[in-house]
Amino acid sequence: MDKRLAELVELLDLERLEDNLFRGVSRDIGAPQVFGGQVLGQALVAASRTVSERRVHSLHAYFLRRGDFNAPIVYQVERTRDGGSFTSRRVVAIQHGQPILTMSSSFHVGESGSEHHSEMPEVPGPDSLADDRAQFQGLDLERVPEKVRRFFEYDRPFEFRPVRPADYSKPERREPLKHVWFRLVGRLPDSHDTLHNCLLAYVSDYHLLDTANLPHGQPFYDLQMASIDHALWFHRELRVDDWLLYSIDSPSRSSSRGFARGSIYDRGGRLVASVAQEGLIRERPGGWGSKPGRGQD
Q1: From CA 261, how far away is CA 24, in angstroms rounded?
Q2: How far apart are CA 204 and CA 14, in angstroms?
Q3: Which end of the chain is less congested by CB atoms within 10 angstroms, N or C?
Q4: Please, what's the b/e burial string for 80-93 (b: 16 or more CB within 10 A of its CB; e: otherwise)?
């Protein structure tokens, strides 16, 4: 297994402390706080380990405080309901005695019935596109803050291929719409359905707030950006180690908050998941990490 992928899988492999209590560690990817997708993915792992023979179909989370890279995160699971067809769980992620995230999730036994889904946008396939690291080549990384530089230099476990790459050195104003193909850098065993869903929760936190910034053309390192809440619906079985298309639009940005929606399709054109997120986008010199403390403050 690719080293980057192995480290990510290990990151999501929580330590069980009690029946409903789990502990995880963090990875510094260059953001000013623990990456929100990491906490989201770990919270879903914790909830999933209290459920058997049912698949997650939705989750709704609030990011309450910045996560500390240097301290473990404890995940407390409340077994809210175990019904005939649906199971509900509530998870609180705790650091230094305070909640940093709350998440509700629902699991379903799976049933047959009529189906439909929206059509995948007509965009070039991933084989004809370049990895998004090509967007960073024009940046003078010595002139950006150290944390921002580390974010660009981080060797990610996911590969991203945007249909229309952004120019981070000279950002331009454009419509709030983005299409990005993504996949894991390596292959997972076929029997890891739950892990695929937890990894999708992890990666779904990428690119959303960036899309809400596109009409404004602001350098992201002059902004303080943080996820506030996040919702994810799983419609169909999926694999994150094969190409998926993230089609994102942002219908609103106001009051220093940006809202974005995402549709995730597999290569066959099936809609496999939907995402919605609101996040803080605060304009001020200093950008990332310029003020310590809680994520939204």
Answers
A1: 29
A2: 20
A3: C
A4: eeeeeeebbbbbbb
Helix (H) or strand (E) segment spanning residue 26? none
Reported confidence tier of residue 295, pLDDT bands at 50, 70, 90: very low
State which H helix or E strand residue 276 sits in. strand 271-283
Which of 77-81, 108-112, 156-160, 166-170 comes out lowest in average pLDDT? 166-170
Average pLDDT for the chain: 90
Whether residue 117 has pLDDT greater than 70? yes
Catalytic residues: 205, 227, 277
Contact predicate 220/31, CB 8 Å: no
DSSP track, 37-100: HHHHHHHHHHHHTT--S-EEEEEEEEE-SPPPTTS-EEEEEEEEEE-SSEEEEEEEEEETTEEE
How many whole angstroms separate alpha carbon 155 and alpha carbon 190?
25
CA dist., res. 188 & res. 241, Å (int):
7
Residue 222 CA to residue 143 CA, distance in Å, equals 13
Q: Could you state, in order of their start, the residue ranges of all structural domains in the chain?
A: 3-109+130-283
> For residue 136, which of 151, 156, 147, 158 has the smallest C-alpha distance?
151
Architecture of domain 3-109+130-283: Beta Barrel (2.40)
Residue with tokens 């809440």: 229
Confidence of residue 178 (pLDDT cuts 50, 70, 90): very high
